[in-house]
Design goal:
Blueprint lengths: L1 E5 L3 H12 L3 E6 L17 E4 L3 H13 L4 E3 L8 H10 L3 E4 L5 H18 L5 E8 L9 H11 L7 E4 L9 E8 L6 E7 L4 E7 L4 H13 L5 E3 L1 H4 L5
Parallel strand pairs: 1-2, 1-3, 3-4, 4-5, 5-11, 6-8, 7-8
Antiparallel strand pairs: 6-9, 9-10
The chain binds nicotinamide-adenine-dinucleotide and ligand LLHOTIJI.
Length: about 240
């Protein structure tokens, strides 16, 4: 498979290593220093683009590839205010976009456990939900994309919540899930869901030991989407039954 890397930072470099180990060819490695190299690429030579760049460049990178009929695996977070516009564009062009806030299989199991826990807590009085995420200090967006997906998992399964609010401890409105972000090096990614009551505390957490889980998931998805169309996510790739 011939891969274009849109973003060649911490994630792009690790994806390049694993993809080459799995026998794939990296056609180009695009970062802020060589964006103009995109003009010299032949789209016919690219099977898939893997996009791990920065919140402000994700949308232009994705639309660049979709315009050229290149399937995109997108991992950059912090651009979801543009979600509707981007996905309408993908569908209009009959393109392929796979987005995941987190490509790690472990986190996607955590997402399912979070949804199940929210359903259980739905009928239980006296507990307040909250989310905390911890990442390295170079992270540009807050809260993390993973924390947003986790909050959506609670909102969609617990009738006591209809929104989330980024907070550093100050109170939020009753129907909103408070989300706290902390930046501590070298944390690759930690997410904690809490349901606290006057009597006890229930906690569900996922701690990434390295970026390897995100990297492996992204490469496996890139191999999987080659013959797929439309806007896809980890629920299409994994089929967990609970
Ligand atoms: N979905 C997931 O599983 C997952 C996992 C880890 C990181 N991420 C996200 O992926 C993104 C990248 O993470 P990272 O740790 O590699 O960041 P990083 O800062 O190490 O790398 C970002 C790279 O993007 C490049 N870049 C900037 N503008 C660009 C442009 N216009 N076109 C192409 N490249 C450009 C930079 O030069 C840099 O090399 C972040 O948004 C992060 O939140 C997602
Ligand atoms: O390192 C990052 O940045 C990460 N970003 C994703 C997020 O925002 O959830 C996934 C975890 C690592």
């Amino acid at each position: 498979m011939k891969i274009l890397l849109l973003g060649y930072g911490k994630m792009g470099k690790l994806i390049s290593e694993l993809a080459e180990k799995r026998g794939h060819e990296i056609i180009a490695k695009i970062s802020i220093e060589n964006v103009e190299d995109l003009d010299n690429l032949d789209p016919e030579e690219i099977d898939v683009a893997i996009e791990f760049s920065q919140p402000e460049s994700a949308v232009s990178n994705i639309t660049w590839a979709i315009e050229r009929h290149i399937p995109v695996v997108a991992g950059t977070t912090g651009w979801l205010d543009e979600w509707k516009r981007v996905t309408e564009f993908v569908n209009q062009k009959s393109g392929t976009l796979f987005y995941a806030s987190n490509f790690s299989i472990g986190v996607n199991i955590f997402f399912k456990a979070n949804e199940y826990l929210a359903k259980l807590m739905n009928d239980t009085d006296g507990y307040s939900a909250s989310i905390k995420e911890i990442h390295h200090t170079a992270k540009l967006d807050a809260p993390s994309g993973t924390a947003i997906t986790t909050a959506e998992g609670i909102i969609n399964n617990h009738k006591g919540y209809d929104s989330w609010t980024l907070t550093q401890g100050e109170p939020v409105k009753r129907n909103s899930v408070p989300v706290e972000s902390e930046r501590v090096d070298p944390t690759p990614g930690t997410h904690i869901v809490k349901y606290d009551s006057p009597f006890d505390l229930i906690e569900l957490s996922h701690t990434a030991h390295s970026r390897e889980g995100f990297v492996k998931g992204a490469v496996l998805v890139a191999e999987w989407i080659l013959d797929k169309k439309g806007v896809l996510n980890m629920n299409d790739f994994l089929s967990f039954e609970i």
